[in-house]
Structures are given as structure tokens and as C-alpha cells.
Write a structure and sequence with these properties.
Layout: H1 5-11, H2 16-28, H3 30-49, H4 58-106
Length: about 110
């Protein structure tokens, strides 16, 4: 698939084979499923707001940018915390395996 496959998903422009691939991807990847659902929600919100006048106040856009960046940082921080947690769990699991191997080799 090309890099911006998600645009085709949102616009309903995927062939059947690629659509089944996206369904399979989202079925087995909660992250991709969440991304696709979030993008669909954003598309719906944009469609609702498309006729609304946008303010010309520069402070509004600075505030909007700051809010968006804060949300991005929160998301990235959450991903980092999740990755650290997974690494810690993997290290603990390896330690348990090494301990079990040691006791097994000692005949305990």
C-alpha cells in the first residue's frame, strides 16, 4: 500500500483486496484500529464544521496550536510510558526464566 493508505480508507476508495487487508490490520492491531476510528471521527467533525466561519484572531490560532501540541505530547508520553512498562515486564520475565533455569539445573 502507498504511504497515505488511510486517506483511501476514509474516502472509501480501496479495492476489495486492500480493504480486507485494512480490516485484518485493524482486527489485529488495536493501535491501527484506534487511528482509523479517530480519523473517521475527525473527518465527520470537519464535515460538520466546514461551513462555520473561522476566527481571524491570531490568539485563537496560537491557543489552538498549543492545545494540539499538548495533546500530541500527552499521546507521545503515554506511548513512552507503555514502552518502558513493556520493557520492564520483559526484563522481569527474563529474570524469572533465568531463575527457573538455575533452579532446574540445580535439581531443586
Amino acid at each position: 500500500m502507498r504511504e497515505a493508505w488511510w486517506i483511501d480508507v476514509l474516502e472509501g476508495e480501496l479495492c476489495d483486496e486492500k480493504y480486507r487487508g485494512v480490516e485484518l490490520l485493524s482486527k489485529h492491531s488495536k493501535t491501527d484500529e484506534m487511528i482509523i476510528n479517530n480519523l473517521k471521527q475527525v473527518k465527520a467533525l470537519v464535515k460538520e464544521q466546514i461551513n462555520e466561519e473561522l476566527p481571524e484572531d491570531e490568539a485563537y490560532y496560537r491557543s489552538l496550536h498549543a492545545n494540539v501540541m499538548n495533546e500530541v505530547l500527552k499521546y507521545e508520553d503515554k506511548k513512552i510510558v507503555e514502552q518502558k512498562k513493556k520493557k520492564k515486564e520483559a526484563r522481569n520475565k527474563m529474570a524469572q526464566i533465568k531463575t527457573a533455569k538455575y533452579y532446574f539445573s540445580m535439581g531443586i
